[in-house]
Each structure stands twice: as structure tokens, then as C-alpha cells.
Design goal:
- By secondary structure, the protein is mostly helical.
- It has two domains: 206 residues, MFS general substrate transporter like domains (Growth Hormone, Chain: A, Up-down Bundle), CATH 1.20.1250.20; 182 residues, MFS general substrate transporter like domains (Growth Hormone, Chain: A), CATH 1.20.1250.
- Helices cover 70% and strands 1% of the residues.
- It is built from 17 helices and two strands.
- The chain has a two-stranded antiparallel ribbon.
- Helix 12 runs antiparallel to helix 13, helix 13 packs antiparallel against helix 14 and helix 13 packs antiparallel against helix 17.
């Protein structure tokens, strides 16, 4: 296969787009050779600018939806914690349904219009606005619906922004570097989350009187933390908007621009064609939806297990969370090189096997106490990030140029469709075993099913010459 040009400007204007001859562009990914991948601009500054969005997005992932705002919103100041947890669950479920319906169509439309960067900026700005408005959620029952609405709206815009962001991956990487670039971005997200959590926890939440005289009165410590998070995301989202070009060069591939509702008919046709021409892509979307939910379950229930089954205090849970994210971030960045050398499938399979083995060991040796959880829990974190990053690059190597938004939208949609599996399996095993630590086997089962479905999926090439 011919080597693609490294620079779009080096080729005649009418014959090349991002170093790919227009006649080489397929209408859909095939089961034969991997689709031609355009050679992106791989300058380190541009890659770092792209990864900075992942670093900044930790403001929503770590602070808003995991460790700070949701904990604040389900506290007794807002009402009965059990009822509030129920409201929160239904709110996130509703947001997930909206994402499921919108993600692939909106991704498809950014492909055809060439406005991927514009919509990344718009969606990111909406998330930043939601984070900032969380400052006005005071600790009183009358404010709970405002908090839930901001969380739901922010979730929708965040997931749609992620589709646009993932679609940029091949613009700033080549087939030889896509694994390292994806791993760097994912790793920066882990580490960025820890840095921001340390800032808000040590600067505002933990001290009686924090920075700028902020105290916990009227929920001010948490509310100011949300302002800091909004600023954090806004600042670190800017580099990608200035450094990475739009996808205008790949937008005009002869695909007609249609109205919003007509886009669903186009999407249905494209999915049917995807099934006929590249069933491995469909199989991968199904397998990855299952094992990605298992990966999410590792972090979702890690703190719960640490406190409930292994006797960790609240402070020890936070320390473990920091250590877990640091380990996951470093491992993800380091393993990106193996993704490029061996291909993403071996990385995914090895990571899932490692997770199944370590998760089973946590169950078997649970009586060993905290040392068991520290050792095996951090070992689990070694495999989570690499599996997530390699999953993104596996799909990135299959998508034909100009359809990144649509297929990554399907990636988001299938992921959302499977988000009930790990919580359900965890609950069923706890019920069956009568003890919380039995829930580990539920997560292991989800990971094992994803592993089994992933084994027969034909791998894309690790490199293209």
C-alpha cells in the first residue's frame, strides 16, 4: 500500500485530502484491508493540545459526576438520601437515553458539514456553563431539581463533545502513532482528574477555612469548587480549538447534506451497510460496549468495596482513588507504544485477562484485609486505562476517513445501551452471596463476557505502510 503524504499541502489541491487520494476513500469500512487513514499533523504541540481537552474534562468526570457534586446533591441537606439517590439514578438514565438517540446522528452531521471543531467548542462551552451554574445550587430541598437538571444537561453535552473529540484522533496521529496518542490523551485525563481533586479537596473542602476564606457554610466549599472546575475545563479546552484544524478537508466526500430528522434515515441505511460490509465493526461495537461497562464498574464500585468490605475510612478511600488514577494514567500512557507495535486487540485481550484474574483474586483473598485490596486493587487499575485507550484506537483504525463522528457516535450509543450490565451483575451477586464482596464476581463476569465476545473479532492492522 502506498505511503500517504504527511502534509496536505504537499499534494495537488484537487486530488488529495489529508494525504489520501479521493478515489481511495471507501463508502464504508470493509472486512479486507484496513480503511486508508489520513496522515494527520503529528507535531507534539498539536498532540498535547488535543490531550489537554482530556486533562480538562476531568472537571466534569471526577468533580461533578463522581466525587464531589453528586455526593453533595444526595446529602441530607437536600432531603432523604435514599430518595435523592433514586432521583439521581433516573436523571442520569434519562440523560443517557438522550445521548443514545442523538450521538450517532450529531456525529454524522459534523462529518458531512466539516464543523467538528466548532461543535466541540459549542458542546464544551455548554458543559462549562453547567459547571459554573452549579455554584447556585444551595443546600436546600428547593434547589435539588436545579442541580439534577444541570447534571443531566451537562452529561448530554459532555458525551456529544466526546464524540467530536474522539473524531479528531486521526487528525493528530498517523497509523504508526495512533496508539501512543490515544494513550497520552486518556492518561492525561486520569492525571488531570487527580490534580483537580487535590486542588478542590485541599484548597476548599477539607480545611475549615479554605483558600480565599471559603468555608463549608451554605455549601460554599462545594459550590466554589464547581466554579474552579468550570474555569479548569474552559482553560484546558482552549488549546485544541486553536491548534487542531477543522475537518473541512474530509467533509466533502459526495455525501449529501440532509435535514436533522432525515439524518436518522441516513443513519439506518449506513448501519445496514455497515452490517453487510464490515460485520467485525458491528461485533466490536457490541463487545466493547459490554467490556467498557465492566471497566466503568471497576472504578464505580471500587470505593464502595474499599469502605464496605475492606474497612477503609473516607480519607483512605480518597487516598486509594488518587493512587488508582495515577497508576491507571501512567499505565495507559506507557502501553500506548505496545498498541502501535502489536495492534490494539492484543492490548485489549491482555488487559481484560488481567482484570478477570485480579478481580477473581480480590474475591478469593478478601479475608486478607486492606493489604489485599491495596495490592490487587491497584493491579486492576494497571489494566483499565490501556483497555479503554486501545478500544478507542481499535475503532479508529477501522473507520473510513470522513465518517469518524458517525461511528464514534455509534460507539457512544452502544456504550450507553450497556451501562446497566455492571450495576445489575454487581447487585445480583451481592444478593446471591449475601455479602458485598460477592459483587466483585458480577463485575468479573461482565468483563469475561466482553472478553469472550472480543476474541473472534478480526483485528485491524497495527500499522499501515
Amino acid at each position: 500500500m502506498r505511503r500517504a503524504s504527511r502534509s496536505p499541502a504537499a499534494a495537488p489541491f484537487t486530488g488529495w485530502r489529508y494525504g489520501v487520494r479521493m478515489t481511495d476513500l471507501p463508502s464504508g469500512p470493509g472486512d479486507g484491508a484496513t480503511a486508508p487513514v489520513p496522515a494527520g499533523d503529528t507535531g507534539f504541540g498539536r498532540v498535547l493540545a488535543w490531550g489537554a481537552w482530556d486533562w480538562g474534562s476531568s472537571a466534569f468526570n471526577a468533580v461533578a459526576t463522581t466525587f464531589v457534586f453528586t455526593v453533595y446533591l444526595t446529602g441530607r441537606s437536600f432531603g432523604d438520601p435514599d430518595r435523592l439517590s433514586e432521583y439521581l439514578s433516573w436523571t442520569i438514565t434519562a440523560a443517557g437515553i438522550v445521548v443514545l438517540l442523538l450521538a450517532p446522528v450529531l456525529g454524522q452531521r459534523t462529518d458531512t458539514t466539516g464543523h467538528r471543531k466548532l461543535w466541540l467548542g459549542v458542546n464544551t462551552a455548554a458543559v462549562v456553563a453547567c459547571l459554573g451554574l452549579m455554584f447556585f445550587v444551595r443546600p436546600a430541598p428547593s434547589y435539588v431539581w436545579l442541580g439534577l437538571a444541570l447534571l443531566a444537561i451537562g452529561t448530554v453535552f459532555f458525551e456529544i463533545a466526546g464524540v467530536n473529540y474522539n473524531g479528531m484522533l486521526r487528525q493528530i496521529s498517523t497509523p504508526r502513532t495512533i496508539g501512543r496518542v490515544s494513550g497520552l490523551g486518556w492518561g492525561m485525563g486520569y492525571v488531570g482528574g487527580i490534580v483537580l481533586l487535590l486542588i478542590v479537596y485541599l484548597g476548599f473542602i477539607q480545611p475549615e477555612t479554605g483558600l480565599f476564606g471559603v468555608t463549608g457554610a451554605d455549601g460554599l466549599s462545594v459550590r466554589v469548587s464547581m466554579l474552579v472546575s468550570a474555569l479548569w475545563f474552559a482553560v484546558f479546552a482552549l488549546p485544541v480549538l486553536f491548534a487542531v484544524p477543522s475537518n473541512r478537508a474530509l467533509a466533502d466526500l459526495g455525501r449529501p447534506r440532509v435535514g436533522f430528522f432525515r439524518s436518522y434515515a441516513v443513519l439506518a441505511r449506513d448501519i445496514a451497510r455497515l452490517w453487510r460490509t464490515s460485520r467485525r465493526t458491528v461485533y466490536f461495537l457490541v463487545a466493547s460496549a459490554i467490556f467498557r461497562d465492566g471497566l466503568t464498574g471497576v472504578f464505580t464500585f471500587g470505593g464502595v468495596l474499599a469502605a464496605g468490605s475492606f474497612g477503609f475510612s473516607s480519607g483512605e478511600v480518597i487516598l486509594f482513588a488518587i493512587a488508582a488514577n495515577v497508576v491507571a494514567g501512567i499505565a495507559t500512557i506507557a502501553v500506548g507504544t505496545l498498541d502501535d507495535r502489536l495492534g490494539p486487540k492484543p492490548v485489549i485481550l491482555a488487559s481484560l485477562i488481567g482484570l478477570v484474574v485480579c478481580g477473581t483474586a480480590v474475591f478469593v483473598f478478601h479475608a486478607g484485609g486492606q493489604i489485599v485490596f491495596w495490592t490487587l486493587g491497584l493491579a486492576l487499575c494497571l489494566f483499565v486505562g490501556p483497555a479503554q485507550s486501545a478500544s478507542r484506537t481499535f475503532l479508529g483504525r477501522l473507520i473510513p476517513p470522513g465518517r469518524e463522528g458517525e461511528v464514534y457516535g455509534l460507539y457512544a450509543t452502544t456504550g450507553r445501551a450497556a451501562t446497566f450490565l455492571a450495576p445489575l451483575a454487581f447487585a445480583l451477586f451481592v444478593t446471591a452471596g449475601g455479602r458485598q464482596y460477592w459483587g466483585v464476581l458480577g463485575i468479573v463476569l461482565v468483563l469475561a463476557i466482553g472478553l469472550a465476545l472480543m476474541v473472534p473479532v478480526k483485528a485491524p492492522r497495527a500499522q499501515l505502510d
